[in-house]
Amino acid sequence: MPEELTGEPGRLDAVLARLTGERRAVVQRAIEAGKVTVDGASRARSFRLSGGERVVADLAQDMEILPEGPPVPVRYRDDHLLVVAKPAGLVTHPTERRRSGTLVNRLLGMGERLSSLGEPMRPGIVHRLDAGTSGLMVVALTDEAHVALEGMLRRHEIDRRYLALVRGAPAHDVFAVEAPLGRRAARVIVDRAEGRASQTDFEIRERFDRATLLEATPRTGRTHQIRVHLSAIGHPILGDRSYGGAGDVARVLGLARPFLHSWRIEFDHPATGERIELEEPLPEDLLATLARLVDLQS
To answer: Which residues pair with 214 in a beta bridge?
Structure first.
């Protein structure tokens, strides 16, 4: 429904954002779409208000998510849920600024009917993988499965394991990182004052001259958790430019994205109780990276 407001001195977009509490980008899109009038007339976003004008604004956003291709590999499917193998480079779900080119768009393009719970831009999504991360993800098809899976994640009843190639040589074969995480703008940081408790367990799978292949098991589900925890102990994931994993080794190995792959997932089916155990081999780009690493040692 359009909202009627009384103008205040200043730029139209800035005043409207202040009065409504909406983000300026959302306000600007509404102005450009002709959904904002000042005393009955459409105005540019830079229009200067004097104060006292009748401003009518319809800031409701189009939340439609369009189906797209190509399909993504499905490793398990029934009437309740899917387990898919997300390719690297694919964003998990749309945002206000990006409505296409995501896993959700592709699932809809495959004809999947996703759970309606959660945020409007995240139908069916109970957990996510970063765009640069490949591998297994669980997706809810029904609202009942969505609620059950979210509860299982909170109770740490879904065992998710990742493979990560990191710089350097960790001292111990088995270790854990417990470090609270918070945000600083777009980055996630270790924040011991106000961060949320986070733990990741690690086990070394193979040691190389300048890198180490680890298995990572997150015990909590914070954004960028594995990446930040490894960076914090001085062993960033190779190829991870956001958290210190760029540099000579990554360039020599030809890594175009973080070497992080969701390789195994295990849980009790929320409806049937069946034990689901799935594994996803490393994709070709990461296998090629390991092959180059072995060649460098020989």
So the answer is: 164, 204
The Cα 188–Cα 167 span in angstroms is 20
Q: Give the CATH number, domain containing residue 125.
A: 3.30.2350.10
Looking at the fold, whether 190 and 125 belong to one and the same domain comes out as no
Distance CA 225, CA 238 (A): 15
- Tell me the pLDDT tens digit for each residue of 87-146: 999 999 988 668 889 999 999 999 999 998 877 789 999 999 999 999 999 999 999 999
Of 155, 179, 201, at which residue does a domain stop? Answer: 155
Q: Which of 13, 130, 240, 285 is catalytic?
A: 130
Rounded CA-CA distance 123/143 in Å is: 10
User: pLDDT tens digit string along 45-92?
Assistant: 999 999 889 999 987 765 678 899 899 999 999 999 999 999 999 999
CA distance 191 to 183: 8
- Collapse the DSSP code of 142 into the 3-class scheme (helix H, G, I; strand E, B; otherwise coil) and give the result: coil
**Residue 264's domain spans which residues?**
156-298
Q: Is 209 a catalytic residue?
A: no
Give the relative orientation of helices 24-32 and 12-20 as an angle to the nearest 10 degrees. 120
Q: 177 and 219, same structural domain? A: yes
Torsion sign, CA atoms 34, 38, 40, 44: negative
Question: Which amino acid type is present at position 151?
Answer: G
Q: Which two tokens stand for residue 167?
A: 């710089």
